[in-house]
Design a protein that fits this description.
Blueprint: H1 3-23, H2 29-40, H3 44-52, H4 56-62, H5 71-84
Helix pairs in contact: 1-2, 2-5, 3-5, 4-5
C-alpha cells in the first residue's frame, strides 16, 4: 500500500467510526445506515474496511429491529456484507 492510499484508508476508517457513533443514536440511525450503504456500494474494499473497523456487530443487532423504515437499507447492507464475506451469515443462526 502506498502512502497516499494509507491516508485515504485512514480517513475512511475515521468516517466509519463516526458512522458507528451515529448508529447508536436513534435520531440519526436511518441517515447513518444510508451513508453506510452508499459507502459499501463503492465495492468490496469498502465492505472489508467497514468490517475491519467493527461495523458488523452493530448491523447484526439492528437486523433484529422491528422498525419498518430501517429494513430496506439493512437488507441492502447485509447483502453487501454477505457478498464479500459469506461466513458472516452464519452468525445470525
Amino acid at each position: 500500500m502506498q502512502y497516499s492510499e494509507s491516508i485515504i484508508y485512514s480517513k475512511h476508517k475515521f468516517a466509519l467510526l463516526c458512522v458507528i457513533q451515529f448508529l447508536l443514536s436513534q435520531a440519526h440511525r436511518l441517515q447513518a445506515l444510508e451513508l453506510l450503504g452508499k459507502f459499501l456500494d463503492l465495492g468490496s474494499w469498502a465492505v472489508s474496511l467497514s468490517l475491519s473497523v467493527g461495523i458488523f456487530p452493530y448491523v447484526l443487532k439492528l437486523l433484529g429491529s422491528k422498525l419498518k423504515e430501517l429494513q430496506p437499507i439493512l437488507v441492502f447492507i447485509w447483502a453487501k456484507i454477505l457478498a464479500v464475506d459469506p461466513v458472516r451469515g452464519r452468525n445470525i443462526a
